[in-house]
Design brief:
Blueprint (H helix, E strand, L loop, with lengths): L2 H9 L2 E2 L2 E8 L7 E5 L7 E3 L2 H18 L7 E2 L8 H6 L15 E7 L5 E8 H5 L5 E5 L17 H7 L47 E3 L2 E3 L6 H18 L6 H22 L2 H25 L1 E3 L5 E3 L5 H17 L5 H13 L5 E4 L1 H5 L6 H10 L9 H6 L6 E4 L19 H13 L2 H5 L4 H11 L15 E2 H8 L6 H10 L3 E7 L2 E6 L12
Parallel strand pairs: 1-5
Antiparallel strand pairs: 2-3, 2-7, 3-4, 6-7, 6-8, 9-10, 11-12, 13-14, 15-17, 16-17
Length: 531
């Protein structure tokens, strides 16, 4: 079949229908509009507003579509004669055939102006309708196939098929465009495809092309496995969302860094990029740092698999303040012996900020002191402590009428600064913490002395996060412990045995001048880990 024969056959086919409904201003400067139709039999309408005009125009076009029969399979594009951009694109210097780009079934399409000034219905092929971005398909003609399956040379001329179209009964196979997919036409099932006609193309599924960015790196859309690509893109979105949070959540941040480290290691394996391994290591370090900060802020530390400890003093700052108070008392105890030092610790915590505080008899009677009245008298005589009455009056005082005490060495100087720099809210927390350690129930039941209670205080502020003695679990120097407890070196081992019996210490041993072991799990909450 020649190109001339094809064009001749199409010229004898039925031309597609087309009509346009327009909306124009009825008068200059007024709000009235005129609705007109390209069909000669339609009378223009004048409406008061543009909104009413658009409603009338759409209703008028819908009336035409309902009255008209559906698209005809034997019709060719109504837009071809008017040089739509699809057909203009086909016309080139090589004088290619006009209908060579048409394809798909005949449809009834509606095209409208974006400004709402005109609406057009036309009968054309599906390809020409798709060339208009605003086109809407109202109806589609049934696809058709050739009536014979012989060689191309023996097929009838297309013009003959067009002339015989009117004589065929309903449902008969009519002409169709060469690009129409035969799989969509029920009437063509079982009919062989003529020679020379290409098989219909099966549309390929569009591959997802997701992009993302994390750590100033673009996540490739073709990265495999796909689960890794999706994880990296999601992590990038989560990190950006975290930056918009009004308040930080260190636990969530640690989890994000852990996921990032794992994802970057897998990314490095599949891509072979060394820099990704370094980025994964940095993410692991950031995760550890964020988790440690979270534990310090909340007073929690890991104990075992999935377990945490809620510490009595929550936070690194308060732990350091506790060590500062104990170090100050070790240097400024006015009297020798463990009982005087233990008494100095408790009184210092009561009046740490201003040098003044309140004390009741029960606070003193709860301490393991041989003669509390005599000890208070000695402290007063040394000038380290000042009370308004006698020691006996202090021991008899009750909570409703406490005894005021004064420690001159703790009072602020002329510059307003004292030996401690923590706040008013921290002082009662530190005092409560020390009272909790010294007044431990099992230590009281074992009737342990002041030296044993001092050792318990010393060990509580010299542990690692998991409760091992020493910053890294390497143990504590025996000389430092005996100096703090005000005892001789050979007296330390009996004190350690007492703490072990009271379930305060576990796995304790004195070797090479160091005490090793760990705090019992029940007392981890009073520990103050070293940094």
């Amino acid at each position: 079949m020649t190109v001339e024969g094809t064009v001749s056959g199409l010229e004898e086919r039925v031309a597609g229908r087309a009509w346009t409904v327009r909306l124009d201003a009825a008068d200059r400067g007024g709000a009235t509009v005129r609705v007109s139709c390209s069909r000669p039999a339609c009378t223009p309408q004048v409406l008061p507003t543009a909104a009413a005009g658009r409603t009338a125009a759409v209703a008028h076009l819908a009336t035409h579509l309902r009255a008209a029969s559906g698209p005809r399979p034997e019709a060719y594009c109504a837009c071809r004669a008017e040089e739509c951009h699809t057909h203009v694109r086909d016309t080139g210097p090589r004088e290619r055939a006009v209908p060579s780009r048409c394809g798909g079934p005949v449809v009834m399409a509606v095209i409208n102006d974006r400004q709402g000034r005109w609406w057009r219905a036309l009968e054309c092929c599906a390809r020409c309708a798709a060339a208009h971005s605003c086109a809407k398909i109202v109806a589609t003609a049934p696809a058709a196939a050739p009536a014979t399956a012989g060689p191309v040379a023996t097929r009838p001329h297309p013009a003959a098929g067009a002339r015989a179209g009117a004589d065929r009964p309903a449902g008969a196979i009519g002409p169709h465009f060469s690009h129409a997919p035969s799989s969509t036409a029920p009437a063509t099932q079982g009919v062989p495809v003529p020679q020379g006609v290409p098989a219909p193309r099966t549309p390929r599924p569009r591959r997802s092309r997701r992009y993302g960015k994390i750590a100033q790196r673009i996540v490739p859309h073709d990265l495999h496995p796909v689960a890794l690509r999706d994880e990296l893109i999601e992590l990038g979105d989560l990190f950006r969302a975290y930056q918009q949070r009004p308040e930080p959540d260190l636990a969530e941040l640690a989890d994000l860094h852990s996921r990032k480290a794992k994802a970057f290691r897998i990314w490095a394996e599949v891509s072979g990029v060394t820099e990704l391994v370094l980025e994964a290591r940095r993410a692991e370090q950031a995760a550890d740092a964020a988790l440690l900060q979270h534990q310090q802020r909340t007073g929690q530390s890991p104990v075992g698999e999935g377990e945490v400890t809620n510490r009595l003093l929550p936070g690194l700052t308060q732990w350091e303040h506790a060590r500062t108070v104990l170090a100050h008392v070790a240097e400024h105890t006015p009297l020798p012996g463990p009982e005087a030092r233990l008494m100095a610790v408790m009184l210092t915590l009561r009046s740490a900020l201003t040098g003044t505080g309140n004390l009741v008899g029960q606070d003193v009677r709860g301490l393991p002191l041989t003669d509390p009245e005599e000890l208070i008298g000695r402290l007063v005589d040394s000038g380290w402590l000042s009370i308004p009455g006698t020691a006996d009056d202090l021991l008899e005082s009750r909570p409703e009428s406490p005894t005021p005490i004064t420690i001159p060495s703790l009072m602020p100087g002329e510059d307003g600064q004292g030996p401690f720099d923590f706040g008013r809210k921290t002082r009662p927390k530190l005092s409560g913490w020390a009272q909790r350690v010294v007044g431990d129930k099992k230590l009281r039941k074992k009737k342990t002395g002041a030296a044993t209670r001092l050792l318990a205080l010393a060990l509580a502020v010299r542990t690692s996060t998991d409760g091992r003695l020493g910053a890294d679990g390497e143990g504590i120097d025996v000389a430092a412990l005996t100096s703090w407890c005000a005892v001789e070196p050979d007296e330390l081992e009996p004190l350690v045995e007492q703490l072990t019996a009271a379930d305060w210490l576990a796995e304790a041993a004195v070797t090479d001048g160091r005490l090793t072991g760990r705090l019992a799990e029940r007392v981890l909450q009073v520990s103050c880990p070293l940094p």
